[in-house]
Amino acid sequence: MVFKIKSGSLRLVQFILIIIFNYQFCNSQIYEIGGTIGGTNFIGDVGNTTFINPNKSAFGGIIKWNRSPRHSYRFSFVSATISANDLDSDDPRRNERGYNFSSSLKELSAGMEFNFFDYNLHEYDVIFTPYIYSGIIYSKYENLLFNGNNLQNSDDYEWSFGIPMVLGIKYRIFEKIILSFEIGARYTFSDKIDGSLPYNEDFNYTFGNENNNDWYMFSGFNLTYTFGRQPCYCNIK
Q1: Tens of pLDDT along the chain (237 residues)?
Q2: How far is CA 134 from CA 22, 77, 186, 237, in A?
Q3: Of the residues 32, 88, 108, 203, which has the fewest C-beta atoms closer than 10 A?
């Protein structure tokens, strides 16, 4: 069966598509791309439970699409090391147990960033604003084996979703360069990062609170370069 579109209907469709395209183009905002560097710390069934206590390094990249002066879509990748040691804890039970681990972690994140103040990057008198960020993360972490009386890396990896909760402040240091500092908690949908649910298929041993999933923190700096044309309505006189 062949469907025929009348010329009048085709012109109408073309007109609608042109309007949609021009609307998106005219309201397009500036983009940002750059890098991130900082430190991580783990909060779970092993090690110190201090909320902000970076002990390992992390780095990655970040891309933003600023849709308005108050919000932007954000995508990022972070490569980090997660480490914890019971001997660093104030809990005497953890000190006595003495578990520790150190493993690699990769994180993909997508979500929305909200500015407390209007932050129009086309207006150069706008200097700084606090912001919050949340969305979803997809973390790849190394499974841990329970060997004797301690944890060891398995060289096998697993993925888990999670939720980032980030508070930060950003500052324009040059016309097209933005520096930001942020502290963010990552709540994961897994209780396996610290090995409290060990990967051993033939060894049924767990420890810690099985009702609490694992968290990890990232504290660091983002440095981004801004680019993209000014919205066309700004050129209307």
Answers
A1: 444 444 555 565 555 555 444 444 444 458 999 999 999 999 988 888 888 899 999 999 999 999 888 999 999 999 999 999 888 888 888 888 888 888 899 999 999 999 999 888 777 777 899 999 999 999 999 888 777 667 777 778 889 999 999 999 999 998 889 999 999 999 999 888 887 776 656 656 677 677 789 999 999 999 999 988 665 544 444
A2: 30, 14, 10, 38
A3: 203
Cβ atoms of 184 and 52 within 8 Å: the answer is no
pTM above 0.85, yes or no: no
Cα–Cα distance for residue pair 126/215, rounded to 1 Å: 35
Q: What domains can be seen in the chain, in order of their start residue?
A: 29-230 (2.40.160.20)
Give the up-direction half-sphere exposure of residue 132: CA atoms within 13 A in the CB hemisphere.
5
Alpha-carbon gap, residue 33 to 75, rounded angstroms: 10
**What CA–CA distance (Å, rounded) separates 43 from 39?**
14
